[in-house]
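BUG: 3D viewer hangs when loading the predicted structure for this chain

Environment: internal workstation, default settings.
Expected: structure renders.
Actual: progress bar stalls at 90%.

Input used:
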Amino acid sequence: MNPPLPRFERLAPERRAEILAVARSRFAEHGPQNASYNKIIEAAGISKTAAYHYFDGREDLLAAVLEDVRDRLLRALGPWAPAEDATAFWARLEAGTDTLASHLLGHPDDLALAEAAAALDGGAAWQGWFAALVADGQRLGVIRTDLDQELLVSATVAVIGAADLWALTALAGGRRPDRAQVWSLLRGLWGREGDRYAH
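C-alpha cells produced before the viewer hung:
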C-alpha cells in the first residue's frame, strides 16, 4: 500500500475529509478486503478518472483510510503526559483507555477498522506513545528498570496489542471488556519477580 498521490493532498481539507469519511464508512461496512472501489468513489462523488489522480487504486485508498483512522485514534488518546505518582500513572492509563473506548463506541466505523489501522505500519506510529508511558512508569517505580527500555516498550506494545484485539472483539459484540485483567497482565510484565505494584 502506498500513500495517496500528491493531488489528493492538495485537495481542500474538507474535501479530503469527506472522501475519507465515505471510504471509511464503506470499508467498515463491507470489510477492508470486500469494499468496492468503484462504489466508494461513486458515493464520494468523484469520477474514476479523478480517483486515479488521487490514488493508484483501491489499496492506496484503503491505506489512506487506515492512516486516517489511526491518526483519529491517536488524537482521541492524546500524548502521554507525565504522572505525579504511581496512583496518577494508573489513573492516567485508565482514563486513556476510557477515552479510547468511548471514541470507538461513538465512531463505529473507527471500531470496525481499528485492528487493521493499528497493524498498518507494524504499530510504529504508537511506539512514541508507549515509549513515553514506559519511561514515565520507570521514573515513578511502576515499571521495572532491570531490562532494556526498548525491550520493555516492545513487550508493552505486544501485550497491549493483544489486549486491544481482545477488547475490540468485546466492544464489537456489545460488551465492555474487564480492564482489570489487562492491568494484571501489565503488572506482571512491568514488575520484578515478587513485586506487586498497587493499582
